Amino acid sequence: MTLRNAGALASIDPAAMLAGGNLFAVLAPDGTIEILSASGAVLTGSETFRLTGFLRGLAGSEAAAARPAPAGSLIVRLDDGAVVPLVDRLDEAGRRFRYRVGSASRDPGDPSFTEFSATGGLSALRPLSPVHLRARRDAAGVRLSWTRRARRDGDAWEAADIPLDEAAEAYAVSIFSGDGDLLRSLAAAGPGLLYTDEAADFGGPQTVLDVAVAQVGAVFGPGESRRARVPVRAA
């Protein structure tokens, strides 16, 4: 990797990486951006580094982690706190703003600053996909559950209930057949629901369910879904 003005870029321990160190943005030819971090950073030549130990798909960019970023793709090192949403409120979406970019140690009016205009969308308000989908059978049916995520302030080092991004929780849940066909769409007002239509959908008890869950935002609507084949465990 060629990186100009890398400063004191060096390897860090895993704890420092998980705390947000050595962050990079990778821009693929299709325009998608992935945020990742690297624990290993070794200088191998003039302005050339070898990065290892990646933690990929950060800051809601996990979908971009699946797309190719061939040699020659643009990579930018990010300072702490460099990734911030351009849109914080609904009335800011779709409006064109003027930005000036330059050294934090200089006045924004300094001639060295670069100026550009951009229009922000609603992506900063898109709910992140839930994680840890689970299924447990009991006498009433199959209890599906999951863990929600937060766009901000969700990285507690101790066990804690992370902030809720929305005024209320809402989820869209989809059940698929073994062939991948949509069988049933459900709604949940919390991180779980009781699925009672197994016999109608499949004709009998299943050992694995193909389930997708998306959190629904008041402004954005359904966010990224998490889909998985979930083993149905006994109560």
What does this structure look like?
This protein is elongated. It is mainly β and 235 residues long. The longest helix is centred in the first third of the chain and has 5 residues, at 14-18. Strand 1 and strand 2 (33-45) form a beta hairpin. 4% of the residues lie in helices and 43% in strands. The chain folds into two domains: 14-124, no CATH class; 131-234, Immunoglobulins (Immunoglobulin-like), CATH 2.60.40.10.
Give descriptors for this structure:
235 residues; 2 domains; mainly beta; Immunoglobulin-like
Q: What characterizes the major β-sheet? A: 7 strands, mixed
The structure class reads mainly beta
Uncertain residue segments:
none
Helix content: under 10%
The CA-CA distance between the termini, in Å, is 51 Å
**What is the radius of gyration computed over CA atoms, rounded to a whole number of angstroms?**
22 Å
Overall average residue pLDDT: 89
Question: What order do the helices and strands follow?
Answer: HEEEEEEEEEEEHEE
Beta-strand percentage range? 35-45%
